[in-house]
Amino acid sequence: MLSRHRMIHKALLLVHLVGFAAYLGAGFAQQRFMKRSREGGLPTAIRDEYERLAATVLTKIELPALMAQVMTGVGFVVLSPAWLKLGWLHGKLACVVVLLGLSHAEMFNARAIVKLRAARGEDANAEVEARKSRHATFGAIGTLAVIAIVGLVVYGLG
Questions:
Q1: Count of beta carbons in the 10 Å neighbourhood of residue 19
Q2: pLDDT tens column, 26-74
Q3: At what angle do helices 44-57 and 4-36 cross, to 10 degrees?
Q4: CB of 12 within 8 A of CB of 20?
Q5: In terms of Cα–Cα distance, which of 31, 70, 24, 68 is closest to 50?
Q6: Which residues, 6+ apart, have CB-to-CB distance to 129 below 8 Å?
Q7: Domain range enclosing 58
Q8: Among residues 33, 55, 54, which one has the least CA distance to residue 42?
Q9: Which string of b and e fits 36-45 if b means at least 16 CB within 10 Å?
Q10: In total, how many domains does the chain have?
């Protein structure tokens, strides 16, 4: 029979990993939607829907998944405060802070694109295009941070 502490740890790990998978999937999806919305010759309605989908995925999946990871991470530290003595964990936490900032920046950026389209339509194209370029940059930085997290966890635990 597993101890209570071990059962809690396993439950936290399950939620943490599901949150990680949801975060990765949502991050990939919203970046693809935004990229597809930049394709030339796309009907306006489809372009606008891709932009709305990117904003929705960020708000309803990516950020909640990231928050679930943060909360379970806090749970891990509460259960085992000694983890804070591990150097690799500090690197991971720094990357998580970067991802929190990036995800919020992406969300505000995607929402701004949707609002610009609703308010100004095609007249907003130049500003929307600049925001989409910024969005792609956020995605690239986020990808590097995720790779760093995976590397820190794999080699830190090894």
A1: 20
A2: 999 999 999 999 999 999 999 999 999 999 999 999 999 999 999 999 9
A3: 160
A4: no
A5: 31
A6: 38
A7: 4-157
A8: 33
A9: bbbeeeeeee
A10: 1
Cα 109 to Cα 130: distance, rounded to the nearest angstrom: 10
Residue 157 has a pLDDT of 76
Q: How far is CA 141 from CA 18, 24, 49, 102, in A?
A: 22, 14, 25, 8
Q: Any residues with CB less than 8 A from the CB of 43 and at least 6 apart, and which?
A: none
Q: Which residues contact 69 (CB under 8 A, 6 or more apart)?
A: 16, 19, 20, 23, 96
> What percent of the chain is modeled with pLDDT above 90?
96
In angstroms, rounded to a whole number, what is the distance separating the alpha carbons of residues 144 and 126?
A: 28
CB atoms within 10 A of CB 7: 11
Task: Tell whether pTM > 0.70.
Answer: yes
Residue 83 confidence (pLDDT) above 80: yes
Distance, in Å, from the CA atom of 113 to the CA atom of 158, rounded to the nearest integer, reads 43
